[in-house]
Design a protein that fits this description.
The protein is of the alpha/beta class. It has twelve helices and eleven strands. The protein has two domains: 187 residues, Spore Coat Polysaccharide Biosynthesis Protein SpsA, Chain A (Alpha-Beta Complex), CATH 3.90.550; 61 residues, no CATH class. Strands 1, 2, 3, 4, 5, 6, 8, 10 and 11 form a nine-stranded mixed beta sheet that branches. A two-stranded antiparallel ribbon has the order 7-9. InterPro entries: Glyco_trans_2-like (IPR001173), Nucleotide-diphossugar_trans (IPR029044). This is GT2 family glycosyltransferase.
Length: 307
C-alpha cells in the first residue's frame, strides 16, 4: 500500500442481479469515504434481466461494465473485472457481491489494515440486513474437522473450540486477527498480492474459489486479515436452500481438498463429507440429498453454470 490516500477499485460480479445491484452501487460512494475510488467494474455473467440497464443508469461513479458473454462463473468474472483495471495505478481491489451494502467509511479500515507488511487480503465484519452477525471466517479444512462436522454438524462444531471449519463464536468477531479464509462475498485484495499470485482459479465455477485463492495466498506468505472496524451488509445467497448449488458447494470443497492434500487424506475427507451429507439426507434434507448424489455420481451439470 502506497503512502497517502489509498487508491481503491471495486469489482462487482453480477448474474441476474437486478433486484440488488442498485442498492449496492448506491452504497459505494459513502463506503469509499476517506479513500480515492479509482474505478468500479461490474463484471456481468450474461444476465438476462435488467442488471446491465441498472448499472448503466447509475451516475457519479467511475463505472465500467465488462460483459463475459456467458455465465462463466464467479472466478472468471473476477478475473475479467481485474483485467479491466490498471493495477499499477491502484493499491487494492475490493471484490464484492451485488447483494452487499457498504457502510459509510467502511473501505478505509481495510486499506489501513493492508499497510502492514505480509497482509494481502482483508475482510470486513459481515452482518445480515437486520444488523446481526453473519459468520464469515473459516479455519483451514482438515480431516478432523470434516469428521467432527459429519458427526455433530458444522454449526455445533463451530461453537466448540476450533473443532469446526466455520468460526461461529461471536467473540471471535469482536477483535481483528488472522484467518485461514473467509467468504468470498467481500474480499479486499492488495494489488501486490494480485500481481504475485495471479488470477483466481476458474475451474471451480462457483464456491471454493475464494478458499483456493486465500489458501494459495497463504502458501506464498500472504496473510488474510479480519478487520471488524469495517462493516458490510450481506443479504446472502441460496446455497442453503438450492439443492444444485448446495451440491456444487460440497463437490468443490472435496475437489479443493484433493488438490492440496495426499490421496489418503483426501479419501478420509471424502468419506467424512459423504457420511455427513448421507445422514442428513436420510433425515430429509433436500440439499444433502443432492450433495450425496453429486459426490457418489459426478455429473457434468455441475461443471457448467446456467446460461
Amino acid at each position: 500500500m502506497t503512502p497517502g490516500t489509498p487508491r481503491i477499485a471495486i469489482v462487482i460480479v453480477t448474474y441476474n442481479s437486478a433486484e440488488v445491484l442498485e442498492g449496492c452501487l448506491r452504497s459505494l460512494a459513502e463506503g469509499a469515504r476517506g479513500v480515492h475510488l479509482a474505478g468500479v467494474v461490474v463484471a456481468d455473467n450474461a444476465s438476462k434481466d435488467s442488471t446491465l440497464k441498472i448499472a448503466g443508469e447509475v451516475t457519479g461513479l467511475p463505472l465500467q461494465i465488462v460483459q463475459l458473454g456467458r455465465n462463466a462463473g464467479y472466478a472468471a468474472a473476477i478475473n475479467a473485472g481485474v483485467a479491466a483495471l490498471d493495477l499499477q495505478d491502484i493499491d487494492a481491489v475490493y471484490v464484492i457481491n451485488p447483494d452487499c451494502r457498504l457502510r459509510p467509511g467502511s473501505i478505509l479500515p481495510l486499506a489501513e489494515a493492508l499497510r502492514r507488511p505480509g497482509r494481502g487480503i482483508a475482510v470486513p465484519r459481515m452482518v445480515n440486513p437486520d444488523g446481526s452477525l453473519q459468520p464469515s471466517l473459516r479455519r483451514t479444512p482438515t480431516v478432523r474437522r470434516a469428521l467432527v462436522e459429519a458427526m455433530i454438524g458444522g454449526d455445533l462444531a463451530g461453537r466448540i473450540g476450533t473443532l469446526g471449519e466455520l468460526v461461529t463464536d461471536p467473540r471471535e468477531y469482536e477483535r481483528p486477527g488472522v484467518a485461514a479464509w473467509a467468504t468470498g462475498a467481500a474480499m479486499f485484495l492488495s494489488a501486490d498480492l494480485i500481481r504475485e499470485i495471479g488470477p483466481w482459479d476458474e475451474s471451480f465455477l462457483l464456491y471454493s474459489e475464494e478458499t483456493e485463492y486465500a489458501l494459495r495466498a497463504g502458501d506464498r506468505g500472504w496473510a488474510l486479515w479480519y478487520e471488524p472496524a469495517s462493516v458490510i451488509e450481506h443479504i446472502g445467497g441460496d446455497s442453503g436452500v438450492n439443492p444444485t448449488l448446495a451440491a456444487l458447494l460440497t463437490v468443490n470443497k472435496v475437489k479443493l481438498f484433493r488438490r492440496r492434500r495426499s490421496t489418503l487424506a483426501w479419501l478420509v475427507y471424502y468419506f467424512a463429507v459423504a457420511l455427513g451429507e448421507g445422514v442428513r439426507a436420510l433425515a430429509g434434507r433436500r440439499t444433502s440429498r443432492a450433495s450425496i448424489v453429486a459426490l457418489l455420481r459426478p455429473s457434468r451439470r455441475l461443471q457448467k453454470l446456467a446460461d
